[in-house]
Amino acid sequence: MSCPLMKPGMVPPPPGEESQSVVLPPGWQSYLSPQGRRYYVNTTTNETTWERPSGSGIPASPGTHRSPLPPTVNGYHASGTPAHPPETAHMSVRKSAADPQNLGSSSPGKKQSKENTITINCVTFPHPDTMPEQQLLKPTEWSYCDYFWADKKDPQGNGNVAGFELLLQKQLKGKQMQKEMSEFIRERIKIEEEYAKNLAKLSQNSLAAQEEGSLGEAWAQVKKSLADEAEVHLKFSAKLHSEVEKPLMNFRENFKKDMKKCDHHIADLRKQLASRYAAVEKARKALTERQRDLEMKTQQLEIKLSNKTEEDIKKARRKSTQAGDDLMRCVDLYNQAQSKWFEEMVTTTLELERLEVERVEMIRQHLCQYTQLRHETDMFNQSTVEPVDQLLRKVDPAKDRELWVREHKTGNIRPVDMEI
Q1: Architecture in CATH of 164-397
Q2: What is the SS3 assignment for 41?
Q3: Which UniProt keywords apply (predicted)?
């Protein structure tokens, strides 16, 4: 996992520029393109322009471009697309000139730029020793798009795991956790269903059915309350299934398939990047060989060690120039591939971040629904015993005795003593 110092292609604006001493209108920031040209970005509307915005926030000339991409940071949009044409700053290339002594030479700026970059897995990064700390795309948010550019050593092996692969693994793990939560609720539903079944069965039991009087009425209500409670728990289990378990199980049914497509897309971009990097290295070697051949022929001609004609020199020079052009073309294609990869990485990581927030919020809402159903069930359970409480308060042993005696009395004549 990389730190934000290792984002590809980002160029910080040097201090001391005019735009840093003059306050820009609210919402505008200025940056330098790799070519050194200053441009301005409206971080609210995502507009970019070469012209300095006026006090009203509108550029003085109609050079404003409305970009569908997010705001730029250090010359790159947050989605990764350069706000200006990419420059081959990380490759030392120079076309052959007419002067043989200049053949193969590179401008000091190019050499310095190459020395200020490092290449990791075919991706060109600023060298951490020469590059000041880069701005985060989403400061203070610990966003995925800022911290997963490089690879991380696999703790279970000797290989490396790409930062993007770590994000995919987290997404798939989240899907698995969601599935396991659904299975947990399913087990909870089974317990509720079994409990309701047992309560209903127990409510039909004939034990103590012959109890009489007000106490007998209270006892009958106790048994009826079990049947009512069983109905409450059946409804609870049904709502758990429809409002908690099923949504958890069905949320993003095609999620794994979508993540697989996403993984293949980023992997294809990395393969393209590696292929074009290899083409650059091949073209660089070819240019070196052409330059060496031209230099050797030129020296031989100067010291008259060869019968090579001027035409041969021109031919070698044309080949050297063509090799330089080929290298520049390969570098251009490489930069385009890297910019595309960078853009897709930022866009996709931000999407994965959004999906994770959405998943967590979805689970939170359904667990809140679970607790709400629990509270309702407890309330309904309480209502089933309230009639029992009312009847128990009315139990009157004296009244029960009176009623029983009236129904079962055998007579009120008492025995008398026997006379002799």
Answers
A1: Up-down Bundle (1.20)
A2: strand
A3: Coiled coil, Cytoplasm, Developmental protein, Differentiation, Neurogenesis, Phosphoprotein
38-42: strand order across its sheet? 28-32, 38-42, 47-49, 65-66
DSSP strands (E only) in 264-369: none
| Rg of the Cα atoms in the chain | 41
Using pLDDT thresholds of 50, 70 and 90, give the confidence band for residue 115: low
pLDDT category at 167 given cuts 50, 70, 90 is very high
- What does the alpha-carbon distance between residue 70 and residue 47 come to, in Å, rounded to a whole number? 9
Residue 103: the pLDDT is 32
User: What average pLDDT does range 199-217 have in this prediction?
Assistant: 94
Find, among 35, 34, 63, the residue nearest to 48 by Cα.
Answer: 63
Q: Assign 93 a pLDDT band (cuts: 50, 70, 90).
A: very low
DSSP state of 241: I
Say if CB 273 and CB 122 are below 8 A apart.
yes
Backbone angles phi, psi at 246, to 5 degrees: -65, -45
Give the model's pLDDT for residue 259. Answer: 86
pLDDT in tens, 254-307: 788 888 888 888 889 889 988 999 999 999 999 999 989 888 877 777 766 555
Q: Are strands 72-73 and 123-126 parallel, antiparallel or unpaired?
A: unpaired
pLDDT of residue 102: 35
Residue 90, judged by CB atoms within 10 A of its CB (0-12, 13-18, 19+), counts as buried
Residue 38: in which H helix or E strand, if any?
Answer: strand 38-42
Q: Give the C-alpha separation, 161 to 149, whole Å.
A: 11
Q: How many CB atoms lie within 10 A of CB 5?
A: 15
Find how far residue 66's CA is from the centre of its chain: 27
Cβ neighbors of 388 (< 8 A, separation 6 or more) are 218, 221, 222, 225
Dig out the tokens for 263 from the structure.
């993984």
Domain ranges of the chain: 164-397
CA-nearest of 32, 58, 35, 38 to 47 is 58
